[in-house]
Amino acid sequence: MSTLYRARVMDTPDSPFTGAGLRAEEDVALVVEDGTIVTRGPYDAVRDAHPDAEVVDLREGILLPGFVDAHVHFPQVRVIAGLGMPLLDWLTHCALPEEARLADAGYARGVATDFVSGLLNAGTTSALVFGSHFAPAVDEVFTEAARTGLRITAGLVLSDRILEPAGLLTTPERAYQESRALADRWHGTGRARYAVTPRFSLSASDPLLEVSGALLKDVPGSWFTSHVNENGAEVATVAQLFPDAHDYVDTYDRHGLVGRRSVLAHNVHPTDRELAVLADQSATVAHCATSNAALGSGLFPLKRHIEHGVRVALGSDVGAGTGFAMLKEGLQAYFAQQLLGKEGLPLTPAHLLWLSTRAGAEALDLGDEVGDLSPGRAFDAVWVCPPEGSTLDIGLRHAQDADNALARIFAMAGQADLARVWIGGERVRPVDPA
Ligand code: GUN
Ligand code: ZN
Prior knowledge:
It is an enzyme of class 3 (hydrolase). Residues 29-53 form the Aminodeoxyfutalosine deaminase/Imidazolonepropionase-like composite domain. Pathway: Purine metabolism; guanine degradation; xanthine from guanine: step 1/1. The chain is an alpha/beta fold and 434 residues long. The protein is 38% helix and 23% strand. The protein is built from 16 helices and 16 strands. The protein binds guanine and zinc ion. Guanine is lined by residues 73, 87, 91, 95, 199-200, 227, 230, 291, 317, 320.
């Protein structure tokens, strides 16, 4: 059975950072079979070639690829918007007390439901997820993602020092065993993949980072994710804790943790040496724009990343980030570059769409599967169709051109404007009754 989606489609198959523009086409037909786009072209011609396909008419709105969130914390969904604190205070007073509650698997199950639901409601269809310090809680988030179809890469969060309460801490031996068992259960099962996840060097000793390197080798195709260079006090503490390391990136790199399948969140305060290492090893930085603003971490030096050739995607960083909406992250990323003045990189609507879709897909090595709406990709898509009278509805009716319409979507779209979401051809919002 094939379905033909008839729509105005916008996506970014190629990077605006290397000169490509927005691909915006009117009256496109996307033919979807078994969850995959098999044909894309002008409606009339495609319809003639597929007379038996069921037609879903989406011309009232605009179809975008599903969003890809390159950095989001599962245990923090219930503590979003603990405002007014810098990173280390926020961890102590807001995030970690809640994360400790996930020791209770029943509590973790409820959090997993809230978390996955939050992502889907925001139109996020793939995510690199910071898991929990507790293995049963990580099972819960993988289970809920599998139930709903969400594509996640996630893992057990590892720390063996400094964090409180002490129940969050592990040992290198236990970290290896529990991570390995989770990876054996989930890595490559359906859409799930495993990410080795030391929390950050501040809370991870060299032996724990060494074990992380061993896990990355022993679980072929697994990911590495952590935090780097987010906040001045954090960076200074890491420098004290690792007197032999060149810098923060080196604390990971010397354990073989920086490579093509590594995503480091933040990097607001990098040195040129660190940017050169990240570029050389093809690692990705997840820019978490609302989090950086909410915690006062700083303005992300995107221009320096791009000039060095570092890959950059976007992360919501819930719950330091202020919600799941990748559209809001895109807008905030634009604001940050504006505020940087001459040091900033002016971003177009196409850049924002790239950063919130295709860049994340490439960071997760899912570029062949998702990230744009080309033939061969899974049908992971968001239909922006504002209800009558919403500010976005007025905005779209008065947009001058496609780029301007997309700018209005990033500036104004809220959850109510995301009328439908699909993953692999299955409608996940609103949930398909079939
Ligand atoms: N660094 C270590 N843990 C965290 C976290 O949970 N959120 C953010 N933003 N930074 C971190
Ligand atoms: Zn984070």
